[in-house]
Amino acid sequence: MKFVIALLVMGILTQNFTLAKFLGICPFLGVSKKLNTAVGMSLAVIFVMLLATAVTYPLNIFLEAHDLAYLQTIVFILVIAALVQMVEIVLKKYVKSLYNALGIYLPLITTNCAVLGVVILNIDNISAYSAYGFGFGHAMVSSFAAGAGFMLAMVLFAGVRSRLETADVPESLKGLPITLIAAAIVSMSFLGFSGIVEGMGLM
Amino acid sequence: MAETKKISYGHELTKGILKENPVLRLVLGTCPTLATSTSVVNGVGMGIAATIVLICSNIAISALRKVIPSKARIPAYIVIIASFVTVVQMLVKAFVPALDESLGVFLPLIVVNCIILGRAEAFASKNPVLVSAVDGLGMGIGFTAALFCMGAVREILGAGTFLSGIDTMIGGFVDLNGFTGFDFNERLTHLGVAPMTIFILPAGGFFTFGVIMALANKLADKKGLQKAELRGCEGCPHAAVCGRSDCAEQTAEKPAAKPAAAVKAASTAATTAATTAAATQKAPETAKPAPATPPAAGNGKEADAQ
């Protein structure tokens, strides 16, 4: 249980996917202008991350059992791309309300490095956290934590950006540069959480 | 004829380095740029790995451009890119294990590097093999150069070193006479100052990138070029994959524009938005006008150049 909490704290705060690991920067900069788009995108990311982990984790066991571990990258990206397309079609047909909320973001996520990143990191975690018996459940928890961390960063940053809109910024800093510098300050605030996992005696 | 071709090769090579620098001008590949530029050696290692993949994938995609059906082109490109990434990953693991360790997850993540898929869609799928290879080389050099700048600033300010760890990267191939990079720390402590560690932390990455991009914007402004920004679908790194004419952000804003409107109105707006999006997405199967527009817009400069 302690390890599960540690995974959650690490994913959301200390090892935040966007602000500490630099995964998913494109949507972080591109889709964080408005709060509602930020939330929609983040929910879609959490959804796809969980789905991708649920599929690729058993797939990896199969690959390793057949000595095909070197095919990981190719197999994972194709499976994720196919999965996202399929989910989009299924949602459009059967779960209209969910499709309306998440559908428009789904194709954007196919080649999002955060999704492939979480899948590969989960596979790496198996050996890194073997002392804690990292298994399928833990992989799902850490995927959720990664997605939730992405959401927290997106929501916080959407707030910062709405303040930036009205700020008087020097000409050459306008647009992306000032956005990146604001992201630096948000990222710096997350440094304050470092050591929390060890401090709480979770690991 | 031959002469105009020669000029265009030079143009394809140099445009990626300055005028259309993938990182600083087109704002592509931000994730690896921020993550791997903690030191010069790391950044340049990433740049070279990505350049190799970029050249190979551009050559392969350009050679197969008449064979790949347009409906299935994105999955085909992804398979080609992923294969080359796997090859590069194995080579790096075998010959430069230190680089593999420091790049970590970002080595396999070259697959989803927007620069590579973007060049495949915008350039290699429309141009002959040799020009595509030159374009890949130019873009790769531009990416590596941007990573070198970022890495140099961050390493000097954040760690007080320059080119540290070079012996672990190329020491096996070149005799460096025991050179392991410059270290200014001793002199700095003599002066009573210490390096600003924040620069090699994630926050410093965002900050350095922001400042360098502001400088690039200033230079571009002097030359009368457009500012670097994520502009609509044209500048969106996912334009190649997304294939719809209106961006998710704009589509999603439609229902939000009328907060007072009834739920029904909002939901119909959402469904129409969704159906138009779906329609534009289906379009490639019939006439493919939708995917043609965003890359065409992004490709305008290249089209002019030819």
Structural notes for this entry:
The complex is a heterodimer of chains A (203) and B (306). Chain A is mainly alpha-helical and 203 residues long. Helix content of chain A is 73%, strand content 0%. The radius of gyration of chain A is 18 Å and the shape is globular. In chain B, strands 1-2 form a two-stranded antiparallel ribbon. The longest helix of chain B is centred in the middle third of the chain and has 31 residues, at 129-159. By secondary structure, chain B is an all-alpha fold. Chain B has 2 domains: 9-231, no CATH class; 233-264, no CATH class. The chains are: A mainly alpha (203), B mainly alpha (306). At the A-B interface, helix 2, helix 3, helix 4, helix 5 and helix 7 of A face helix 2, helix 4, helix 10, helix 13 and helix 14 of B.
Q: Could you tell me the mean pLDDT of chain B? A: 76
Radius of gyration of chain A: 18 Å
Oligomeric grouping of the chains = heterodimer
- Overall shape of chain B: it is globular
| Gyration radius of chain B, rounded | 22 Å
- Give the helix tally of chain A: 10
Strand content of chain A: under 5%
Largest interface: A-B, 61 and 66 residues
What structural class results from the helix and strand content of chain A? Answer: mainly alpha
The average pLDDT of chain A is 87
Tally of contiguous helical segments of chain B: 16
* CA(first)-CA(last) distance of chain B: 12 Å
Sheet with the most strands, sense and barrel status of chain B: 2 strands, antiparallel
Low-confidence stretches of chain A: none
Quick one: overall form of chain A?
globular
Strand order of the largest sheet of chain B: 1-2
List its salient traits.
heterodimer; A: 203 residues; mainly alpha; globular; B: 306 residues; 16 helices; 1% strand; disordered C terminus
